[in-house]
Write a structure and sequence with these properties.
Elements lengths: L1 E4 L4 H6 L11 E2 L2 E5 L4 E5 L2 E2 L8 E5 L4 E3 L4 E2 L9 E5 L2 E8 L4 E9 L4 E3 L4 E2 L9 E5 L2 E5 L2 E3 L6 E3 L3 E5 L4 E4 L3 E2 L9 E5 L2 E8 L5 E9 L4 E4 L3 E2 L9 E5 L2 E5 L12 E5 L4 E4 L14 E4 L7 E8 L5 E9 L5 H7 L3 H14 L3 H10 L20 E8 L2 E8 L2 E8 L15 E3 L21 E5 L57 E5 L6 H6 L12 E2 L1
Parallel strand pairs: 8-12, 13-19, 20-24, 25-29
Antiparallel strand pairs: 1-32, 2-5, 3-4, 4-6, 6-7, 9-10, 10-11, 11-12, 14-15, 15-18, 16-17, 18-19, 21-22, 22-23, 23-24, 26-27, 27-28, 28-29, 30-31, 31-32, 33-34, 33-36, 34-35, 35-39, 37-38
């Protein structure tokens, strides 16, 4: 691993009149949260300049390498340090801390899209005011563990090992009923998440003992288990920084009863429960505690950022460092091991996901595009078949209903050459594309083997007309729409299947409620295709349907 100090062009920015060249300045016991995939780092609160707490928000652009201080809206939290700040999406949930005199128990949310603060109304059993606690998010649940506050009867400090859970959607608090052996009461400990588990390690207890034990809470069952670690274990300490990267926890700095901060780096593989010391290259941060940081992956792959802290002389610091870990997340390691053929296939699939909604819908029903490998927004050459019910006819127009992938759909098809005879259709009539009957699965889905596409024509009693087409008599569809289907604005009519090439109108005798079959002209074959024996797959354009 390698350290890199973040050097900002302060002198140049100062000459240009920028007041934000130095960023948040010196501070400790603050929080740092990366959003937008590591693009922006939000620094909030802490203790520093003029030896007092702050409630300022500063934003570091990790791409442009610049600081800014946004103008915030709403009522901001009171100045504080020792709080927790947790990402819930791109919003930041701030809880607790201290204003320098008393512990706090309020909850605030910063919506980073508009830089607006709110203080939501919460219900349920709330945590007591506290500082030095930890917070972690699992799914939509915000877990608050430990910390210390004041006794309601006197000013004695109270140390906690309780667990409160906030539903971040309903803002309901619950005090968790846990089983197993929980960690002892503690504060300024490390906390992180891995999969559906919360990990608590180290810290300081109410008797001024420094800890290095590791405990894991299953967020589904609320059962605590102590992790029996091996390797070069972390010495007991508190006030260090813990950053998660996949299954790895990196621990930097901290202090012990000797009142001498650390400048070492430890790594815990949670999966194997093995601790290791990390030897780094480059000049790293000085010994410190109460620093803040976060992971900037994926925008800066495998990179962690460290901001500020406090040294052994109790002086706040303002320097910043990148740690290039060289680590990759588990899913990335799996991707790196894939053969080139599979990587190419995944790349093509990712590119297809960027196509428009209509193109994506076409592929989801009919499979991949034809041999040309492209999709046009105006005409989609696709292959396939589906069954539909003809509900109404208006001369050369047909209103159809079907169910595809469980979704009831309705649409219109019509020919540009109207029939010379009125055709009596009833609501029980059916239409169907032609082709190999094996191409239609029992649920009516397309299996990608159709070899014909074409236009719509009534069934004829004369079998002789079937010599030059691959039509199939329509049958009862296997999936029927349930109830009336909602209809929105009509889209452009069906324009893709060469309806100008409809066979001559049928003048033969017809049943009272005839079936339809959809016939598409076969695609021409080249001589080379004939020699190979390949059947040229004919194509048709998407039938416009709406919800």
């Amino acid at each position: 691993m390698r350290w890199e100090r973040v050097v900002l062009p302060r002198a140049q920015e100062a000459e240009q009149g920028s007041e934000e060249a130095g960023g948040p300045g010196k501070r400790w016991a603050h929080t740092c949260n990366a959003i937008k995939g590591g693009r922006f780092l939000y620094v909030f609160g802490g203790f520093g300049i003029d030896y007092c707490q702050t409630n300022e928000v500063h934003v570091f652009d990790t791409v442009e390498q610049t600081w800014s201080q946004p103008t915030v809206k709403g009522m901001p939290p009171a100045p504080r340090d020792g709080h927790s700040c947790t990402n819930v999406g791109d919003n930041l949930f701030v809880f607790g801390g201290t204003d320098g005199m008393n512990p706090l128990g309020d909850l605030h949310i910063l919506y980073t899209s508009s830089h607006t603060w709110i203080s939501p109304m919460t219900r349920g059993e709330r945590p007591e005011a506290r500082q030095g606690h930890s917070a972690a998010l699992v799914d939509k649940w915000l877990f608050i563990f430990g910390g210390y506050g004041k006794s309601p009867d006197d000013d004695d400090e109270v140390y906690y090992n309780d667990l409160f859970i906030l539903n971040t959607e309903t803002f309901v608090w619950n005090k968790a009923v846990m089983t197993g052996i929980p960690p002892s009461p503690r504060h300024t400990h490390g906390c992180s998440t891995w999969k559906n588990k919360m990990i608590v390690l180290g810290g300081e207890d109410g008797c001024d003992n420094y800890l290095s034990d590791v405990h894991i809470l299953d967020a589904d069952t609320l059962i605590w288990n102590e992790l029996n670690t091996t390797g070069h274990t972390l010495p007991p300490r508190a006030g260090y920084l813990t950053i998660t990267f996949g299954k790895f926890l990196l621990v930097y700095g901290g202090y012990t009863e000797a009142q001498k901060p650390y400048d070492d780096l430890y790594l815990l593989d949670v999966e194997s429960a093995i601790w290791s010391t990390v030897t780094t290259a480059g000049a790293g941060p000085s010994a410190r505690f109460s620093m803040a940081g976060d992971c900037l992956d994926p925008i800066r792959s495998g990179v962690l950022i460290f901001v500020g802290g406090c040294n052994g002389n109790l002086e706040a610091l303002d320097d910043m460092y990148y740690l290039h870990t060289g680590l990759t997340r588990e899913h990335q390691r799996r991707l790196d091991k894939l053969p080139l053929r599979k990587k190419l296939k995944m790349k093509c699939q990712e590119q297809n996901l960027t196509l428009g909604h209509e193109n994506a819908f076409v592929q989801s029903i009919y499979g991949q595009p034809g041999a040309h490998g492209y999709l046009s927004k105006q005409s989609q050459p696709i292959q396939g078949k589906f069954q539909a019910r003809v509900k109404e006819t208006f001369g050369d127009q047909y209103t159809i209903e079907t169910v595809i992938d469980g979704k009831p759909l309705r649409g219109i098809i019509f020919s540009s050459k109207p029939s010379t005879l009125p055709i009596p259709f009833s609501s029980s009539s059916r239409i169907r594309t032609c082709g190999d009957s094996s191409a239609v699965m029992p649920n009516g889905y397309y299996n990608g083997e159709s070899e014909a596409s074409g236009s719509i024509q009534p069934d004829s009693a004369d079998d002789g007309q079937a010599d030059d087409v691959d039509g199939i008599e329509a049958s009862e569809p296997h999936a029927e729409p349930a109830g009336p289907l909602p209809v929105s604005n009509v889209t452009q009519p069906f324009d893709g299947c060469d309806l100008d090439k409809v066979n001559q109108p049928c003048n033969n005798r017809m049943d009272e409620t005839p079936n339809l079959k959809v016939e598409f002209p076969k695609k021409s074959r080249t001589s080379s295709q004939d020699e190979r024996g390949d059947s040229a797959k004919s194509v048709c354009k998407f039938l416009h349907i709406w919800f």
